[in-house]
Amino acid sequence: MDWQIFIVFLAATCAAGATGSLFPPDDWYFKRLKKPVWTPPPWLFPLAWVTLYISAAVAATWVAMEQGSGFALAFWALQIALNTLWTPVFFGLKRLGAALVVIGCLWFAVAATMLTFWQIVPAAGWLFVPYLIWVSYAGALNAWIWRKNAHVAVEA
User: Fold this and answer.
1) Mean pLDDT score across all residues of the chain
2) Quick check: 89 and 102 in contact, CB under 8 A?
3) What are the C-alpha distances in Å from 26 to residues 4, 19, 49, 132, 141?
4) Angstrom distance (rounded) from CA 101 to CA 94
5) Conformational region of residue 6, where left means phi above 0, alpha means psi within -120 to 50, and beta covers everything else
6) What are the phi and psi torsion angles at 108 (to 5°)?
7) Residue 63 contacts residue 120 (beta carbons within 8 Å)
8) Three-state DSSP class for 124?
9) Is the pLDDT of residue 156 over 60?
C-alpha cells in the first residue's frame, strides 16, 4: 500500500468527518425532534463513521494504484463531497427535506463507488458494502424524522 496516497485519502475523510464537530447535534435534535425507537445511541455515530472513513481511504488507495481508476475515483470524490455536505444541511441548516435529498444522492454515489471499485479491486468494493448499508440506514432514519417532524420549526 502506498502510504502517501493513503494519507491523502484519509485527510479527505477527516475533512468530511470534521463537519460533525462543526455542526454537532444540539437540543433541536435531541429534545425537539421525534425519532424512531431504532435510532442508534449517540456514541455509535462516531464509531461507525471512523470505521467507514478508514475503510473508504484504504479502498481508494488500493484502487488509485491501478491503471484506469479515474472514473472510480471520481465517484469516490463525489461521495466524500456529498458526505461532507449532509451534516451542515441536517444539523446546521436544520433542513430535513434537503438533507434527505443529499443523503439520497450520497447513497447513489456510494453504490457507484462500490461497483466501480469492485471492477478494479474486488476487495475495495467489499470495503464499501458496510458504508452502503450504513448510508441506507441513515437515509431511512432521515426520512422517518423528516416525515414525523414537519411541525417542528427551524430555529434561527
Assistant:
1) 94
2) yes
3) 37, 14, 19, 26, 17
4) 13
5) alpha
6) -65, -40
7) yes
8) helix
9) no
User: What gap in Å lies between CA 12 and CA 6, rounded to an integer?
Assistant: 10
Q: How far apart, in whole angstroms, are the C-alpha atoms of residue 72 and residue 136?
A: 21
The domain segmentation of the chain, as residue ranges, is 3-148
- Terminal-residue alpha carbon distance, the chain: 47
pTM: 0.92
- Start-end of H helices in 65-121: 70-87, 96-120
Q: What grid cell was written down for 52?
A: 467507514
Q: Which three cell numbers stand for residue 33?
A: 425532534
CATH of domain 3-148: 1.20.1260.100
- Cβ-based neighbour number of residue 105 at 10 Å: 16
The predicted structure's pLDDT at residue 3: 93
- DSSP conformational letter for 89: I
Residues whose CB falls within 8 Å of the CB of residue 24, separated by 6 or more in sequence, listed in order: 91
